[in-house]
Amino acid sequence: MLCEKCHQREVTVFLTECEETTPANCSTQSSALCAECSGFPRLPESLIEKGCHYCGGPFFSMAVNLLEPSEDLASHWVLCYQCARENFRFMQQFETDLLQLLATPNPEAQILQRWRKHDQHMRDWVSRRDAK
Ligand SMILES: [Zn+2]
Ligand SMILES: [Zn+2]
């Protein structure tokens, strides 16, 4: 998979950016980028050592902690390559649905609920994957 920006280097980061930490103000943007184009800050070693949030696999990328969104890097989740790809796929779907969610009477609650579902989806997906 090649970087969305330069179309030359292999993707190393699946990024989902959240501009504001409150779900209602969160305009997420997912992109698949190479290390150079992502310009990502170096992550704390302690975070990398934790391994994948869902399966314990080796560090590939990080993701927003969906259950407790925060700008604090230390509270982010680490994902392995496979989980990051699935997470990215699901996040792209979320972006499509976001406008609809924002039009509901209580968007913040709707979005949090959607994230919990996402988290659950990832857990189910990992247990199916690892059962094979
Ligand atoms: Zn690139
Ligand atoms: Zn994983």
Based on the model shown, name its key terms.
single chain; 2 domains; 4 helices; 132 residues; globular; two-stranded antiparallel ribbon; alpha+beta; 4 strands; binds zinc ion
Description of the molecule:
43% of the residues lie in helices and 14% in strands. It has 132 residues and is of the alpha+beta class. The chain has two domains: 40 residues, no CATH class; 89 residues, no CATH class. It has a two-stranded antiparallel sheet. It has a two-stranded antiparallel sheet with strand order 3-4. It is globular. The site of one zinc ion (ZN) has 8 residues, from α3.
Radius of gyration based on Cα positions: 15 Å
Number of helices: 4
Q: What strand order characterises the main sheet?
A: 1-2
Helix percentage range: 40-55%
Broad structural category: alpha+beta
Task: Give the biggest beta sheet.
Answer: 2 strands, antiparallel
The overall number of domains is 2
- Straight-line N-to-C gap: 24 Å
